[in-house]
Write a structure and sequence with these properties.
The protein has helices at 2-5, 9-22, 24-33, 39-53, 61-75, 78-91, 95-108, 111-129. It is an all-alpha fold.
Length: 134
């Protein structure tokens, strides 16, 4: 992509990691929806979240996946929880890993947050098993 050639090395690293974790189809669709309004935001998350954080070597993608799901659940960002549950296909985090992360959410962030996250996770896992995505 000519557009990507103009981006920083951190952006390119972040985009590669983003594709690895979320899948090329998801990232391609997100890129296709990008407009002049949200392009700076998309660049920010690609560089910061995917380039600076997810690309670091200290934790595995599996570990980052579990922490991310727990944090998103604790904050009530359930659409993002579902997206990251779907990404576990690529990160190696298991349903048991997700269960353990949500148990931490229940204790440290509250039972209602964990309860709703379990609902989202169960629905997303069922969709994944059926071969469908939401």
């Amino acid at each position: 992509m000519a557009d990507q050639e103009k981006k920083s090395d951190r952006y390119r690293e972040g985009m590669a990691t983003r594709r690895q974790v979320l899948g090329a189809a998801y990232v391609d669709a997100a890129q296709a929806r990008k407009t002049a309004l949200d392009e700076p935001f998309q660049d920010l998350i690609t560089e910061a979240a995917w380039g600076h954080v997810w690309s670091r070597p200290n934790w595995t993608k599996r570990e980052r996946s579990m922490v991310t799901i727990a944090l998103l659940a604790a904050l009530g960002h359930y659409d993002e929880v579902a997206m990251h549950v779907r990404a576990t296909r690529n990160t190696g985090a298991t349903p048991e890993d997700i269960r353990e992360a949500l148990l931490h959410v229940a204790i440290y962030a509250g039972v209602p947050a964990a309860n709703h996250a379990y609902k989202i996770v169960k629905q997303t896992l069922a969709e994944m098993e059926g071969g469908t995505t939401a």
